[in-house]
Amino acid sequence: MNILILGSGGREHAFAKKLSESNKITKLFVAPGNAGTSAVATNIAINPTNFNQVKEVVLQNDITMVVVGPEAPLVEGIHDFFLADSELKNIAVIGPKKDGALLEGSKDFSKQFMIKHGIPTARYESFTSETLQKGQAFLETLSPPYVLKADGLAGGKGVLILTDLGQAKSELKEMLSNQKFGDASATVVIEEFLKGIELSVFVLTDGKNYKILPSAKDYKRIGEGDAGLNTGGMGAISPVPFATDDFLQKVEDLVVKPTINGLQKDGIDYRGFIFIGLMNDNGNPSVVEYNVRMGDPETEVVLPRIESDLVDLFEGVANRTLDKKSYKVTSQTATTVMLVAGGYPEAYEKGKEITGFDLAEDSIVFHAGTTLKDGKVVSNGGRVMAITSFGDSIQEALDKSYKSIDKISFEGMNYRKDIGFDLV
Ligand code: AMP
Ligand code: GLY
């Protein structure tokens, strides 16, 4: 079969590599892709949120399955667009429809969903500009730190965690009355701060059956020791050592099952990934957020650990036969370290030639922000490459990733030298 992957990051390169290894693949396409995906698939330079362009590509290339990487096309309804089109309605889309994508597209919706279905999460209330005063009064009932979340998609920047009550009140006003995050902050969720240590669990579901994919921990801050600005993610580790069997059983019973059952009860036919951001507080899980896609760079450690055929699993998702599909994961640890452009996550330059990545024999090099220019691989984004390695321990895998990185260079290259510092 011919498959189209939408997106252009390290996550999509990891999908492309894994899908290309299946003997069920005839042709693989990535739109728009990057320099790495062009080595295992055909890149097509279209914008994944331009659904008419996606349609053209699908029909021209006899594509029978579309795998959606990022959240934007899902939240904007690409799956619904396919179902409503007579020429596209039988093409499998891996990713939820608009109603399911609201789990990520609206924090208020996802909190309501969790409360309704008894899924452990922080106590919260939602406010709009009309209820600003009530919101400020609600803040007074909480103890610091204060957690303010823009309801809608805000490119990963819509969550503020503040220690000062006065500042929390004024930021609430900025979000609600002065549209700090545009329409995304027309509604703001205020919630209790959760203590504990964070990790992510990924679920692949056909709406009824599910497979729990490997857990992962991501390092979001730019600086060592988890200091400085938030990024898309500077590295990741899978599995997470503190996610013990006992903890993961609790996650399945208290979070995964009620989530899948809740979707069914609410009439939401969900086929795709659910990324569950969790806090582990003394062995008890609490949901921080849902995303309706895989994480980046978590995908770069989760997918390489899956030994089963991913096309086969995706067919199970599309045909609602996921329970019949075999699913195996290696016990080895995978680590990834992200190479980023100098200045990222603030202003940075693109177009820097990248050398030495072909010498990283003990690692898998996933391209993120890269492109081909005059036959050379050059940087094309803030997060440039994710260097993934396997080991019998976190340390062994990390040593391989860092040894590979010693061979790679581009002007301004930066990376965290302490990925996994809290785990080893
Ligand atoms: P989100 O976009 O919901 O993932 O929030 C971004 C980050 O803020 C999360 O990854 C957490 O580190 C942190 N965060 C969000 N909500 C809470 C909370 N209720 N308590 C503590 N930390 C939180
Ligand atoms: N690495 C976090 C995310 O993909 O949202």
From TrEMBL:
PROSITE patterns (UniProt xref): ATP_GRASP (PS50975)
Enzymatic reactions: 5-phospho-beta-D-ribosylamine + glycine + ATP = N(1)-(5-phospho-beta-D-ribosyl)glycinamide + ADP + phosphate + H(+)
GO BP of this protein: 'de novo' IMP biosynthetic process; purine nucleobase biosynthetic process
SMART domains cross-referenced by the UniProt entry: GARS_A, GARS_C
Chain ranges of the ATP-grasp domain: 111-319
Its EC number(s): 6.3.4.13
Keyword Thylakoid: no
Pfam families attached to this UniProt entry: GARS_A, GARS_C, GARS_N
Top-level taxonomic group: Bacteria
GO MF, one annotated term: metal ion binding
Pathway: Purine metabolism; IMP biosynthesis via de novo pathway; N(1)-(5-phospho-D-ribosyl)glycinamide from 5-phospho-alpha-D-ribose 1-diphosphate: step 2/2
InterPro entries tied to this protein: ATP-grasp, ATP_grasp_subdomain_1, PreATP-grasp_dom_sf, PRibGlycinamid_synth_ATP-grasp, PRibGlycinamide_synth, PRibGlycinamide_synth_C-dom, PRibGlycinamide_synth_C_sf, PRibGlycinamide_synth_N
Keywords assigned by UniProt, alphabetized: ATP-binding, Ligase, Nucleotide-binding, Purine biosynthesis
Family: Belongs to the GARS family.
UniProt name for this protein: Phosphoribosylamine--glycine ligase
Organism: Tenacibaculum piscium
Name of the gene this protein is made from: purD
